[in-house]
Structure formats: structure tokens, C-alpha cells
């Protein structure tokens, strides 16, 4: 999922703005970079604006990402080298997501120094952010800490899904015994609101 502010390269000028985006209550399944010839990156949250206000006021909240395939990165972050301002008011909360081989990674250009450590990368690349109450599944522990208030799960089995099958369609309700039941910052379960998604997509083929 790409949330990126891009420069209008055909005329050499920035677009006017990229702001006030909200991504919430989604289930992403079957992310398979080898099968679909992709990069294996779940989210790209980056700003390519050279002079205008950078990407800002972006929220990714209550998203469940279910995959059996190894992924390269959970989040790729980048900024325009020419712009001293960093993206701001970025919120990544209450999600259940895979750690990925490199987890949180920067493009390493401009004022966004490359680092494999999530907390350091967020601080390098966003001027203000909230990253909390996320369940990070199968996170490589040698990559340094996440911001306080996030949870590290050893594997998808320990999350406590009712059933886990990202290829055929699992049931991503959290069981009553799940350690992440009611652990959202809003008191709800971490991950997507499965009942709301089911109701919104009823009858859709």
C-alpha cells in the first residue's frame, strides 16, 4: 500500500499537497512477492515534494495483514533530499502486521538517514508521529526497538486468530484468549474490525 507524495515530474513542479489520508479497518491477505513479482513491501509512507509541504496527517489504523510469504519490509520511508522539512503527524496504530526481513527501512536520502531500527528510523524520517498498540508478528529482534507501547508476537499462531489462512481466507477475529484482545489504544481489539468489514462487503463478489 503506497502512501506517497510525489513530484509532478512532467512539468518539474511539486503537486500541491498530500495530506489528511486515513486508512483503517482493512484486511490484506496473500502478499506474495515471488508469485506476483513485487517488492515485498507492505506500506510505503514517503514524501517526494521538493519545495511544498511534505506528506502530513496520515493515519493507518486497525489494519490486519495476513501472509505466509516472507516479506522484505513492513514500512518503507523516504523524503526528498532537497526539502529540509520532514513528513509530520504520521500515525500507525492498532495494526496486526508482519515484521518483514528489514521491518522499517529508509531510502537513506536527504534528511532521512538509513537505519534498520524502527524507533531510530521513525525519528530520522518523521518530525512528529504516533506508532503504538501495534502487534508486530515475527519481528527480527536484532533490528532494535520499536517505540514503547507496541507488542512483538513470535508468529501468527500466537496472535490468537480464530483461524489463519491468508491464501484461502481466514477468520481474523481474535479469540477470547488472545493476548491482544482489547489491546487497541481505543480499547478495541488490535487489527481490523472484522464484523464491520463483513457487513460492508456483504454480497460483493
Question: How do the helices and strands line up, and which of them pair or pack?
Answer:
Layout lengths: L1 E4 L1 E2 L4 E2 L4 E11 L3 H4 L4 E7 L8 E11 L6 E6 L9 E6 L2 E3 L5 E3 L11 H8 L3 E4 L2 E3 L13 E3 L7 E3 L7 E4 L19 H7 L5
Parallel strand pairs: 1-5, 4-6, 5-7, 6-8, 7-10, 8-11, 9-12, 12-13
Antiparallel strand pairs: 2-3, 14-15
Task: Describe this protein's structure.
- With about 200 residues, this protein is mainly beta.
- The chain has three helices and 15 strands.
- It has helices spanning about 35, 120-125, 195-200, and strands at about 1-5, 5-10, 15, 20-30, 40-45, 55-65, 75-80, 90-95, 95-100, 105, 130, 135, 150-155, 160-165, 170-175.
- The longest helix has 8 residues, at about 120-125.
- The protein is globular, with a radius of gyration of 17 Å.
- The model has no long low-confidence stretch (mean pLDDT about 90).
Strand content: 35-45%
State the shape: globular
Uncertain parts: none
Q: Which structural class best describes the helix and strand composition?
A: mainly beta
Portion of residues within helices: under 10%
Q: Which series of helices and strands comes N to C?
A: EEEEHEEEEEEHEEEEEH
The count of domains is 1
> Termini distance?
22 Å
* Strand order across the largest sheet: 1-5-7-10
Q: How would you sum up the major sheet?
A: 4 strands, parallel
Number of strands: 15
Mean pLDDT: 90
Number of helices: 3
Radius of gyration: 17 Å
